[in-house]
Structures are given as structure tokens and as C-alpha cells.
Design a protein that fits this description.
36% helix; Aminopeptidase; 8-stranded mixed sheet; single chain; alpha/beta; 12 helices; Alpha-Beta Plaits
């Protein structure tokens, strides 16, 4: 393990120790900016909240490629799957000191890896061939940070030609998954004001739930099995479309009953059909339907760039280290989707699990734990890939 690996593990533990919710990432952003400035990057802070945009200019004119990492932690009372609490503590000595807040989605690792990639390339023996833009994003969990950063215009002015990112996954440490043409679903929020009481709401939600084609996994074993299914060609071929339904009921101040429905949908072309189906169900129940906003887009990885990345990573890391997904993971949305609307690219599944040690690597579960060796692996994989992409864009291979 290199000195940089050790330093990045310490950075990850410091961030893990003091997690910050979406919109509150002040200390995390401060740590990131300090490290990037020390490495010689041009750093802009306060982008779309506590976001950071850092630029590494190479020695010659060339293309611009961007890399994004997210920084916020999760509210453990609201954003964690209802699985049993852990029997074993893996972060003893650097566990969260903030009640109800923790890095159970791996964003602390994402941040440390992003810093590591920037540092590795800034101090490498060979200058980068073009320009690298590092985007450290706040407020990913509520799907707000990417939009806020883009609305600032800072990222667009740098005009990246490609965008890349990593996300922790329950694959073994030392592996990385690519998903050409696939990604994560989009999401639609629907509100239905219903007449009557709880019995009307129960009947209506049962009908809406029937629109779903997949249900949230009920155990870690089922979670991991469904994730592995993405990499099994025959199974993946059977799950090319998915609809995951969640709902909750609330009362308006005037006593009216409101059912909120979240639809996670892949592919996003199905949004119109599903809206029409929900409208029909609402009308049959005598309800009034409201759409608070446009559907949030699906995150779609470029088939071409994902394939090119997978081939490069297979050559650099060994083919056994690269996993190929043939379907979309149906349960989570990701606002990296908005960056991919600006420039094509891909998000990869970074394996962080260690079965022998009991680290499941499953984000948003109560006992999420990660093998920290994945940090160095992720840095080497992404530093190499970004260098390769700059060379390819420059016509240098």
C-alpha cells in the first residue's frame, strides 16, 4: 500500500467520523478544497451550495474530461433499507459522531477516491494531456446537488467532453463493474388527493403497487443476489424494464387524505404510460392527481464509452477484475444523470465488499461496510482511465 493510499484512508475516516447531510457539507468541502489546492489544482468553492470544481491543466492543449464525486451523508432514520441492524462494528474508532447521520452510501469513499485521483495525476511523472475537471458535488441524496451546480454555469464553461464517476457496490474489493447502455432508473413523484378514509387509501395504494414489476429486497442476501443478477447475461436479459413503486400517506391541514407515490422507472420512456395509468386509477377512486414536477431523468451510461472503459480496465487491471452488467439496477436513482445530459460518459460499480471479513458493501443498508483497500484500487483505475480518455480524445493512441 502506498503512502497516498494510507493518506486517503485517513481522509475517508475523517469524513466518515463527521458526516454531513445534504446541503450541510461545509467541513467535508473544506477538507477537499485544502487537499486539492495543496496538489496545485485551481479550485472554485461554493458552487451550487458547498460544491467544488477543481481544474488540473496539463502541459499541452487538449480535450477536457471531467470526474465527479459526491460528498453528502444519509439520514439514517429515512434513507436506510429496513434490514436488521449490524451485529459487528467495522468503523470502531472513526464511527459517526453525528446522531442519525452516517455515510451508509459510500460517499466518503467516493470523495476520498476523487481527491486521490486528482492528487495522483497532479503529482505524476507524466503531465496530463489536456484538462481534467474534478467536480465534488453536494446534495446527491435528495437529487438536488447536480442541478444546483449546473445552474451556476461553472461546469459548462469548462466544456467537458466526457464525464465519469464511481459508486460503491456489493461486489468484491478489487473488482469494478461497467454497464454499457444501462445505469439507474428515473423517478416520478405523484400526489393524489383522495376522498374518504384510510380504507380508500389502502385500496388505492394496492392498485398503484400492482403497477410495479420489482419490489425492494427484503434481506441482504436478496439484495446481493439481485445485484449479481445484473452481471448474469440470461437473467439480465429478462429484466430490461423495471418499475419500482413506493408510497406514503399524509393528511393536509384541512383533513384531506393525500397519497404520495414514487415511481422508479427504467427505461424513462415509460414515464408517460405510467402517468396515464396512475391518472386512470386516481379518477376511478374519485381523486385529484397532481404532478409536483417533471420526472427526474434516468442515468444512462454511454454504451460506446462504457465499453471502451471496460476494455481499457480489463487490460490495465486484468479481465477478472471487470464485471459487465446487462441491465439497470432498479432501486436507486442518481443525479449524476444530469451531468451525463451535459456530456456522455459513465458511472462504474466499485466493489467494496469483503465476504471473509463480513463487509457487505451494500449501500443504504444499516450494516454497510467497505474494505478500504477499494480506495487505492479505485484511484488507480480512474487515474488510468482518465489519462487514457485524454489520450484517446487527443488522437494520441
Amino acid at each position: 500500500m502506498t503512502n497516498l493510499d494510507d493518506e486517503l484512508i485517513e481522509l475517508r475516516r475523517e469524513i466518515h467520523h463527521r458526516p454531513e447531510l445534504a446541503g450541510e457539507e461545509r467541513e467535508t468541502a473544506g477538507l477537499v478544497a485544502q487537499q486539492l489546492r495543496a496538489a496545485g489544482l485551481e479550485v472554485t468553492t461554493g458552487v451550487g451550495g458547498h460544491g467544488i470544481v477543481a481544474v488540473l491543466d496539463g502541459s499541452a492543449d487538449g480535450p477536457t474530461v471531467a470526474y465527479r464525486a459526491d460528498m453528502d451523508a444519509v439520514d439514517t432514520n429515512a434513507n436506510v433499507l429496513p434490514f436488521p441492524r449490524p451485529d459487528r462494528v467495522f468503523d470502531e474508532g472513526f464511527a459517526s459522531r453525528v446522531p442519525g447521520v452516517a455515510h451508509l452510501c459510500g460517499h466518503d469513499l467516493h470523495t476520498a477516491i476523487g481527491v486521490g485521483v486528482a492528487r495522483a495525476l497532479a503529482t505524476g511523472a507524466e503531465p496530463v494531456r489536456g484538462r481534467l475537471v474534478f467536480v465534488f458535488q453536494p446534495a446527491e441524496e435528495p437529487l438536488q446537488g447536480a442541478r444546483a451546480m449546473l445552474e451556476s454555469g461553472v461546469v459548462q464553461k469548462l466544456a467537458p467532453r466526457e464525464f465519469y464517476a464511481l459508486h460503491c457496490s456489493p461486489f468484491p474489493c478489487g473488482t469494478i463493474g461497467v454497464s454499457p447502455g444501462y445505469g439507474l432508473p428515473g423517478m416520478d413523484h405523484v400526489r393524489i388527493v383522495l376522498p374518504g378514509g384510510d380504507d380508500v387509501a389502502a385500496a388505492f395504494t394496492a392498485e398503484v403497487s400492482a403497477l410495479g414489476t420489482v419490489a425492494f429486497p427484503q434481506s441482504i442476501a436478496e439484495y446481493n443476489a439481485r445485484f449479481r443478477a445484473l452481471m448474469e447475461p440470461e437473467t439480465a436479459a429478462s429484466i430490461q424494464e423495471s418499475v419500482c413503486v413506493a408510497h406514503w400517506t399524509e393528511r393536509e391541514p384541512d383533513g384531506q387524505l393525500v397519497v404520495n407515490v414514487l415511481l422508479r422507472v427504467w427505461p424513462q420512456q415509460r414515464f408517460a404510460q405510467l402517468r396515464a395509468q396512475v391518472e386512470q386509477l386516481a379518477a376511478a377512486a374519485g381523486g385529484q392527481i397532481q404532478f409536483p414536477g417533471d420526472p427526474f431523468p434516468a442515468m444512462v451510461n454511454s454504451a460506446e464509452l462504457s465499453t471502451a472503459a471496460g476494455r481499457y480496465l480489463s487490460g490495465a487491471l486484468g479481465s477478472q477484475s471487470v464485471l459487465w452488467a446487462g441491465a439497470s439496477w432498479p432501486f436507486n436513482c442518481e443525479d449524476f444523470a444530469l451531468f451525463l445530459d451535459e456530456a456522455p460518459g459513465a458511472q462504474f460499480y466499485l466493489g467494496v465488499a469483503n465476504a471473509e471479513s463480513g463487509m457487505n458493501g451494500a449501500p443504504h443498508t444499516p450494516d454497510f461496510a467497505a474494505d478500504e483497500r477499494a480506495i487505492g484500487f479505485g484511484v488507480r483505475a480512474m487515474a488510468g482511465l482518465l489519462t487514457e480518455r485524454l489520450a484517446a480524445r487527443s488522437g494520441g493512441r
